[in-house]
Amino acid sequence: MITGDHIETALAVAQQVGILNSREAKLKEFFLTGAEFREKIGEYKHIKNSETGEDDILFKNIDQFKEVKKNLRVIARATAEDKLLFVSGI
């Protein structure tokens, strides 16, 4: 779940809808704020796809992104950039 909500609200909603159980809602590996997410995934840059003309994301270390994503279920206080980063990485 990627939301602009505050972390407490996001965790409550995630538990209500079954994204997280009560144990997972206490373990930091399952949730981050957008700022924490951007910090943990490492460097990236926007590039223009020469074939499509669309903007793409190039991660300096895609394995670092994958490690962060592995157990991540909730990103709170997310921006549009965080959503783009997440979708680009998967």
Describe the fold and architecture.
This protein is an alpha+beta fold and 90 residues long. 40% of the residues lie in helices and 18% in strands. It has one domain (7-89). A hairpin with a 6-residue loop joins strand 2 (44-48) and strand 3 (55-59).
Brief digest:
The protein is of the alpha+beta class and 90 residues long. It is built from four helices and four strands. The protein has one domain.
Query: Could you tell me the mean pLDDT?
Result: 94
Low-pLDDT residue intervals, each spanning 5 or more residues: none
Largest sheet: 2 strands, parallel
Give the topology string: H per helix, E per strand: HEHEEHEH
Q: Using the CA coordinates, give the radius of gyration.
A: 14 Å
Distance between the termini: 14 Å
How many separate structural domains?
1
| Number of E-type strands | 4
Estimated share of beta-strand residues? 15-25%
The number of distinct helices, counting runs of at least 4 residues, comes to: 4
